[in-house]
From TrEMBL:
Gene name for this UniProt entry: sufC
Organism annotation: Bombella intestini
Record protein name field: Cysteine desulfurase
Keywords linked to the UniProt accession: ATP-binding, Nucleotide-binding
Keyword Nucleotide-binding in annotation: yes
First and last residue of the signal peptide: none
InterPro entries (alphabetical): AAA+_ATPase, ABC_transporter-like_ATP-bd, FeS-cluster_ATPase_SufC, P-loop_NTPase
Chain ranges of the ABC transporter domain: 4-252
Domain of life: Bacteria
Source taxonomy: Bacteria, Pseudomonadati, Pseudomonadota, Alphaproteobacteria, Acetobacterales
Similarity comment text for this entry: Belongs to the ABC transporter superfamily. Ycf16 family.
SUPFAM superfamilies per record: P-loop containing nucleoside triphosphate hydrolases
Length: 255
């Protein structure tokens, strides 16, 4: 069944008082249990798509729709989207001085559990769970005691993000892996995180222009995005083709 269904999505941002349309009628369907990738040149609107799906306020949806599990995603508050199982990995994880990482993660997990009508985890049971996950991710347990992302290396931030994702157990993980600061180790951490969750009840949208990432996360489908639309969709071979030949042929075919 169609788990995530986006039809004709249009969105704009206020650019110094002038509305600028960024998403120009985007169609995308992700069935349950599938991992899809979106690749596209810089400025094509990939991050905008992830922000709109996450419910960020500065984007105005001016047309089209986005449904998840049959519900109108765009009508829901960000917290309600999270409760429905949507997880968005932030491209630049926020640093929160003075906020204990374990407490921060437990608050996020319990907010989702509460919204789903599940019992909240007390500090002791949460810590047990979090420790299992940190050792699984080859993270030092020390990371749970530190302030959120403060002084974390790039790789530690990635691990922390994957830790959060694994603790939240989303049914749809949207990852926007931008150009900056992703070395091979970080790509592997992200890929292992996504792959570890793969299964019939988990879908993912991996947004990237790193073809390398898709060597580790082999997607069911690859979509090419340009100028605010999906201009081509295919299997994993599309990523290989893009690495060899670039976006040119797809852009020309779409024009
Ligand atoms: P991508 O992630 O594919 O690189 P983005 O979604 O970040 O693309 O950006 C798409 C387009 O929207 C770009 O032309 C970018 O300059 C523009 N854009 C994004 N955010 C803003 C903003 N706050 N103000 C003006 N233009 C923006
Ligand atoms: Mg960009
Ligand atoms: Mg981007």
């Amino acid at each position: 069944s169609d788990f995530l269904k986006i039809e004709g999505l249009k969105a704009q941002i206020d650019a110094d008082g002038t509305p600028k349309e960024i998403l120009k009628g985007l169609d995308l369907t992700i069935p349950k249990g599938e991992v899809h990738a979106i690749m596209g040149p810089n400025g094509s609107g990939k991050s905008t798509l992830s922000y709109v799906l996450a419910g960020r306020e500065d984007y105005e949806v001016t047309g089209g729709s986005a449904h998840f599990k049959g519900q109108d995603l765009l009508e829901l508050e960000p917290e309600e989207r999270a409760a429905l199982g949507v997880f968005l990995a932030f491209q630049s994880p926020v640093e929160l001085p003075g906020v204990n990482n374990a407490n921060f993660l437990r608050t996020a997990v319990n907010a989702v559990r509460k919204a789903r009508g599940e019992e909240e985890l007390d500090a002791v049971s949460f810590l047990k769970l979090a420790r299992e996950e940190t050792s699984r991710l080859s993270m030092s347990g020390e990371m749970l005691k530190r302030a959120v992302n403060v002084g974390f290396s790039g790789g530690e931030k990635k691990r922390n993000e994957v830790l959060q994702m694994r603790l939240l157990k989303p049914s749809l993980a949207i990852l926007d892996e931008t150009d900056s600061g992703l070395d091979i180790d970080a790509l592997r951490i992200v890929a292992d995180g996504v792959n570890s969750l793969r299964g019939p009840d988990f879908s993912s949208l991996v947004i990237t222009h790193h073809q390398r990432l898709l060597d580790y996360i082999v997607p069911d489908r690859v979509h090419v995005m340009a100028h605010g639309r999906i201009i081509h969709s295919g299997g994993p071979e599309v990523a290989t083709l893009l690495e060899k030949q670039g976006y040119k042929q797809f852009l020309e075919a779409a024009a």
